[in-house]
Amino acid sequence: MIASGALALAVEIRDTKDLESIDLTGLNSTRRGVRVSFNEGLHTLLLPTLEDAGGDVRIDFNAKLRSVRSPRLASVAGELQVNLNAELAELDLAALR
Hints:
four-stranded parallel beta sheet; globular; mainly beta
């Protein structure tokens, strides 16, 4: 968990083998974006408080990823890419228009 209201320059989580869940509750915004890629065992990605990404949001090449929840994400300054996650069944980006 991240301190409530936290601002990160960028979040990058990649090339892990045993990480099954990522919970970034408390992260409200980033200046440069978010990248979650090449995580072999990842099943769940939670970004429940993220509202603004100042750069790209890329979630890709996570073979076992089943669920991505970022219901408050309303603004992405760069590109949004969610691809090559073969088992993805749930993608919650409810606030994004």
